[in-house]
Automatic annotation (TrEMBL):
InterPro entries: SET_dom (IPR001214), SET_dom_sf (IPR046341), SETD9 (IPR040415)
Record domain SET: where: 120-295
Protein name: SET domain-containing protein 9
Superkingdom of the source species: Eukaryota
Signal sequence residues: none
Gene3D superfamilies given in the database record: SET domain
Amino acid sequence: MPGRLLRGLLQRWRRYKYRFVPWIALNLSHNPRTLRYVPEESKDKVISDEEVLGPLLKVFQALFLNDFTRQSDILTVLPEPVKLKYQDLLAVQRQRVKLLENRRQEQSVFKPEEVIYKTLGFVVARATSSLISAGKGVFVTKGFVPKGSVVSMYPGTVYQKYEPIFFQSIGNSFIFRCLDGILIDGNDKGISKVVYRSCNGRDQLGPLKMSDTTWLTAEMHNPLALGQYVNNCSNDRAANVCYQEFDVPAVFPVELKQYLPNIPYSYDKQSPLRCVVLIALRDIKQGEELFSNYYTIVS
């Protein structure tokens, strides 16, 4: 019995260590390729914020139109010009479908993964990692990811550096630390899950949701929200994606916030919502696993 328990704990540690901050820190000297050097905080951008915002708006708008029949409650509270914009976009989308597919298919609603593929040209999903004992990883399961593309998003509750996160952090391997000390808890289980759902309910304005909770379930409305499962690179598995911080601008369409997989722990109108996206460092082919580096040194 003790032997079985020990083997179980050892197996869990082998999976956990790839995201365990002290273990990675102690092994940096033996694994230099996992370290990312940044000259200045302001230059920690692989692509510009505009190049991040563009694809996100494109994807979220496509998801919104794909599920247009269920958006009636939201449409009632939107300004008339915004309603007309979506009605015009929907008409254009339907015309394109008529040209490409038969009428029976036109009436169907595509799965979110299909919408992502039609919009970005690729699909990412969780699967067993190619790293031994690393648990789950993220793979490009369909299509092709060009260099500089937004590949994924890191979901979770966003904590300012002065906010309490002790109990949520116990045994939690999914906490991401931003350069300025902001933390994102991407755990989809336990107390972290409860906290996220609570914050989501707090911030909802009538039918308008300020964030997406479906990344906590098996039926994700935004299939990009799985960046917390991307494993750290190693000496023989170089990083093909990197993390980039992105603050959601004030002009972000309120009707599309339902697809943002992040929410602040405390309600604060003054601070923009912090998100973290993963950017492709090179072209990534179908079947490849995503690998990133968790550490950034600012010198």
